[in-house]
Amino acid sequence: MLLKKNSLALKGVLFAAASIVLVACGGDTHTEETITPPQDSVVVAEVETEEVTYSLPSPLQIASIFKKSGLKYKAGVTSELKDPAKYTSNLSKALNLGVYSADLSYAVLNKQNQEAMNYMKLSRQLADNLGMGTVFDQGNLSKRFEKNLNNEDSLAYIIAELQMVTDMYLDENDQQQITSIVFSGAWVESMYIGSKVYEKGKDKSLNSKLAEQMTILSSIIKALQAEEKKDPAITGLIADLVVIKDIYDGLPSVKGNPDAADDMEKELTLTDDEVAQLTTKIEALRVKFING
Amino acid sequence: MKYEVFTNSLKKPLKMSKKAFYISLVGLVFVFGFTTIQTADNCDKKALTTSCKKKLDPYKYDSQKFTKINFTKKAQQLEVEVPIFIGEKYRLVFNTSGLPKGIKINVYTKDKEAKKREPIFSNKDAKAEDKELVFDVPRARKMFVDYDVPADSTNAKLTGCMIFMVGYK
Questions:
Q1: CB pairs under 8 A, 24+ apart, for A199-203?
Q2: Chain A residue numbers touching B23 (CB-CB < 8 A)
């Protein structure tokens, strides 16, 4: 009797297992038909086109481009060193991590070691608050940063490595929206620094780099739109960035050079008044980010 | 030794011998293991990142993009937009080792909606065993990385991932 029960139980389990195997392997149960097209017909392959995705640059590259264009160091232009605990939403944490990343890059490339160290610490705290502080421990990045404070090249490579482990961490944890939000914060801060330094020196090369940076704003907006469903707070950020893009698109210098974005030989230059219009909007958005 | 198996409907212990229990267990492990292997991709992101980084030197890391690829009955075209800047030098490193089968990689300076565009990079002449491809980008304003994923009629639900890393100097 016991043997019979055992046998029944075993059969039951094996039957269930076999059913799962059949379901897993089977998929469609219909028999495939072989259709031979007529000799003269043209076979058009059906191709599915998926949505475009975006790969945004790093804050360090933006800072490096501005630096090469002649962006000088201006004391007090970077964000104040405030307690990151004031940022409570993931959006404000990520935006200000971006702001600090831009300030960190600006400080490193201008050999402002103590300032760089301060922004590194703040970035670490904000990353901790976002639950991703461990990226700073990978490859002893924090310690190496401290040890190489007097070596600008080494610091730049350490920041680049930090960016790499952060990108990988966020990708592994399916949090790519954080990458786009952080870059939005960094871009606004970089543009703010660039435009404030421009106000003082009116450097032509810096002017065209500010104009060039404006051309990636559409990529930032589209990258955020692609991640919008992961965090509804992104919608407000997109709206704020669209306002700046609309102002830029409506500037006479931009409207008068519709092919400038694709022209390899021509660099667009804005008038001082146009730069001022953009600076006002960028500054207001930066204040909004920093106030959380 | 006896094991007691409870069912929700009867709430009565069902006697089962040790041998029968282990045979059943092995069967279930096999089933679930098999289905897991069939659907999991080969995307070890850390290993792929490390491998790309080695090929990126002496360029400085800028960004990377993983794209999950599901092979379906229809061919697919996936596009990644990469903004770049005049005056900078860029390198792209592709790694295809996370894919179960080959795809076409093309890089353009215009998006897929453009009426006429020519690739500035293609893997069409690369050997199948070349899993890592390095492309030093000529002067451009934007790049569009296109993956042409072939149709898979086997219904094997193949998945994998592509990575490219961007460096600058």
A1: A199/A275, A199/A276, A199/A279, A200/A74, A201/A72, A202/A272, A203/A69, A203/A70
A2: 10, 14
